[in-house]
Design brief:
By secondary structure, the chain is an alpha+beta fold. The chain has two domains: 101 residues, Arc Repressor Mutant, subunit A; 113 residues, ADP-ribosylation fold. Strands 4-9-10-7 form a four-stranded antiparallel β-sheet, with no helix packed on it. A four-stranded antiparallel β-sheet has the order 5-8-12-13. The protein is globular and about 50 Å long.
Length: 231
């Protein structure tokens, strides 16, 4: 092989190595994000982590857990800063300055003070509709039973479909069913809604923890082709 050929092979190898390192770092960040989501939303008690009333945990306590010992503070800060759904929030403790982290929503653990903003009828931030993402395999049962918060403390809604302006969170990108909720109608019946820190619309539903189908304004199959579904 000529010198120029050897150089081309070396350049290709370097590029593959760089892509591999970037991919490995991205995979590692995804694993950290998922592990933090579980710890801060669901598993803190079993892991021996103390959640404050507003859902915060000291970052140093998280990093001391066995599943986080390969990570450093800079890893946590990077994942929080780059998370496309803004799932987490960092802050210095108001009294001692130690760094804390919390999940902005999605808890099955009871958190009494998530700093949620109530939605009021007729207010500028009261949407005419909000969207819950699900899957077509669930559509029949949703029509019969409504939406349920299941084990979580809230039903999650987005202000629009993924990729629309201002929509960063509230439904998974792989959902193939979008159910639109008439928010003013539900508010008029006493169902409460709240905005989370990362602009997810949350509701506890009715006394049974559900949003009945009477509040559905429309439903759309998103994939493989868009199709308006009969309610």
């Amino acid at each position: 092989m000529t010198l120029s050929g050897l150089k081309m092979e070396s350049d290709r190898g370097n590029r593959r190595g760089q892509r591999g390192r970037r991919g490995g770092e991205e995979d590692r960040d995804v694993r950290l994000s998922k592990s933090m989501s579980y710890a801060l939303r669901h598993g803190a008690t079993q892991m021996g982590l103390h959640l404050s009333s507003d859902g915060y945990v000291f970052v140093e306590d998280v990093l001391a857990c066995p599943q986080f010992r390969s990570y450093k503070l800079e890893d946590v800060e990077r994942v929080v800063a780059t998370n496309d759904k803004q799932r987490f929030k960092l802050r210095p403790h108001p009294e001692n300055g130690r760094l804390q982290i919390r999940a902005n929503q999605g808890h099955t653990i009871q958190v009494t003070d998530l700093e949620l903003k109530p939605v009021l009828t007729g207010s500028p931030d009261c949407p005419a509709e909000a969207v819950h993402g699900s899957y077509m395999r669930n559509w029949s049962s949703i029509q019969e039973q409504g939406l349920s918060r299941m084990r979580r403390t809230h039903i999650h809604l987005a202000p629009g479909l993924p990729q629309e302006d201002g929509v960063i969170s509230g439904m998974r990108k792989d959902c193939d069913l979008a159910i639109f909720i008439d928010v003013p109608k539900a508010l008029a019946d006493g169902i409460e809604f709240f905005w989370s820190e990362n602009r997810v619309l949350l509701t506890t539903g009715n006394i049974e923890g559900k949003l009945p189908a009477t509040y559905f304004s429309r439903a759309i199959q998103l994939r493989p082709t868009r199709w308006i579904l009969p309610l």
